[in-house]
């Protein structure tokens, strides 16, 4: 049953991904022009938010969506849209993974002691683990969403980590997009600084998790 559900969810995602790859512009300016074409008015932000929730699970780059939001709706409107879209899109991907594959993964983890230890850590420190991974440069956001969905991380911890992580890893690209579009070096510098601060924060959280894991291993060995 789990495999059947996985196929039923994977096929539409693959279709959306293929359509996005073939039909949608891959640049922030191209997406901005697409959003603002046709005089959508107040509907444009709503359509953009729906696009975030659909395209995020389909692996469309969130950085491109964020930069396009900044170009289309400015710093304030783009920030609100990108933050909401990143959280909503992440939650959709999380829910898809949890619905389709959680049971299968749980059975596999139970058979492997090392994976079971990682699973236990994620269940106890899910918020810190997800936030650390979300802030680290080079970690694909959607892959993290799916990985968290099949892990024991609680939904409320996932949403909280995504909400904070989006402020430091998604919103800065809104500022970069707006800054490059308007020629504002201040916005560009602020965006770059936010990304750097997020990376440092992710590194600090990762170090803390490793220290916690090492202490747990030491306690287990001592007993």
TrEMBL record:
Transmembrane region(s): 6-24, 36-60, 80-101, 155-175, 187-207
Topology within the bilayer: Multi-pass membrane protein
Pfam families: VTT_dom
Signal peptide as annotated in the record: none
Keywords tagged on the record: Cell membrane, Membrane, Transmembrane, Transmembrane helix
InterPro entries referenced in this protein's UniProt entry, alphabetically: TMEM64, VTT_dom
Location of the protein in the cell: Cell membrane
Residue stretches making up the VTT domain: 60-178
Family: Belongs to the TVP38/TMEM64 family.
Protein name: TVP38/TMEM64 family membrane protein
